[in-house]
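Checked the freezer inventory, then went back to the computational side. Two predictions to log before the end of the day. The first one is the construct we discussed on Monday; recording sequence and tokens without edits.
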Amino acid sequence: MGGRKSSISKYFFSLLIFFSFSSFAFAQTLPDQSSQPATQETTDAQTEQTERTEQTERSERTEQANPQGKKSSAISKNFKLFVTAGPKLMINTDSVKKSAPHPIMFSGGIGCDIFEDKIITIQPNLTFFTNYYIWDGDDAQPAEVENRTATALSFMLDLTAGHTWHFGKNSIQALAGSGFLFRYGIMSTGVHSSDLNPLTLTTARSDVKDINKWFYKNMNFLYPELCVTYMRHINEFWNIGAEARAYFPLGSLTHGEKFDGAIFSLAFKMQLPKMSEIKSLFAD
């Protein structure tokens, strides 16, 4: 019995040694799972660093190719484009028997606020409107539809400067400058060149020529002006508000006609987002 037990013990001891070596050999063939996350993190970090380096190099090449890029970006921050729309009232102190009483013209315009956050704000602005005129023998007078001879295509160029006050989301501008009224009269629809003017007995063709000459006679195109604007900040893209302008007719004031031809306007104003802001909006 003792010999038999010894043989069995040797048999189990041999099996134990065999399985131990087999387990060790199998473990050596398996991949190291604990090192995989660290290896993956290292790879991701290297990839990110490579992308940053490439982006930096592209930026440096862009700046070298366009050294004015930073300067242009700084300028665009001080440049705000806007549009306007609203009525204009023209004062007519002449006899209403031969002209229209205080005509109202609807206008639309475009302009820009420059250096709005500086001490001095500069604001060029261009508005367009039309009006009817008749010739009375001496002056071009505003006319009603049924008595019109010429239709004037009118462009008011405003060159003003002033200051902007900011109060949280609200801002107020006070501006002063000069308005240049460029007008060109054409024969109104339904009027024939041979039609006679009942006031002067002249033809419509000759009246239109006289009207166009009068537009630029005796400084009738020059209008000193005052402007007040209120704006409300809506969001990062839009600012809306209103503006009021008063135009003083230099030609009439210097020739004893007082405020004949003075213009008062009230308009809705909306500042437009910059192109970079529009691109970022669509990119998001």
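The second is the one RB wanted added to the comparison set:
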Amino acid sequence: MINKNGKEKKANRKEINRKEVNKISLFPRGKKAMMDDLFDLFYTLAVSILLLFFINAALSGGIDQSNKKSVSKLEEFKLVSSAVANLKVYLYEGGDLKDKDLDQMVARSKILGGRTITTCSDYLYEPDCTADPLKVSGDSRCIWLDDSCKVINI
């Protein structure tokens, strides 16, 4: 600064500090620094997206696997439950289970047309009864008598 005499006067400390603050930037930005920050941003986004995909795949795979296992266990339970119910009906109709292995009969039971077939008496239609497509009769034979399927020992 120049004073009245034309001589240069020393600047106040406040004036120097203001000038220095204007010159000094708290966040210096050169081209290289800006490119580094941009690369860091893209890298962070890419890693985050890949991490989210990985976590999603891991969790979805586990859920799908547990759903399949649950459904198969439920189907197995329903098959056994229906087979036991069929055996109860067979007994009620006068069937004889004394010499038969119940575990084997339940294990041999299968599904035909959405219905569990354990013995010949579970067939609802004559063609199914005479053909015995599930082979539930074993050594016996299924025949159609009086609008129901019966077992005949050979």
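For RB: The mean pLDDT is 79. Helices lie at 13-23, 31-92, 102-108, 126-131. Let me know if you want it refolded.
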